Amino acid sequence: MSKTKQSPVERRLARLTDAVREAGIKLTHQRIEIFRELAGTEEHPDAETLFEAVRKRMPTVSLDTVYRTLSTLQELGLVKTIGQQGGGTRFDANIEPHHHYVCVSCGMIRDFESKELNSLRLPGTVRQLGTILDANVEVRGLCAKCQGRKKASTRPKSKSS
Amino acid sequence: MSKTKQSPVERRLARLTDAVREAGIKLTHQRIEIFRELAGTEEHPDAETLFEAVRKRMPTVSLDTVYRTLSTLQELGLVKTIGQQGGGTRFDANIEPHHHYVCVSCGMIRDFESKELNSLRLPGTVRQLGTILDANVEVRGLCAKCQGRKKASTRPKSKSS
DNA sequence: ATCTAGTTGCAAACACTTCTTAGTTAGGAA
DNA sequence: TTCCTAACTAAGAAGTGTTTGCAACTAGAT
Question: Given CB atoms, is A96 within the 8 Å cutoff of chain B?
Answer without folding.
Answer: no
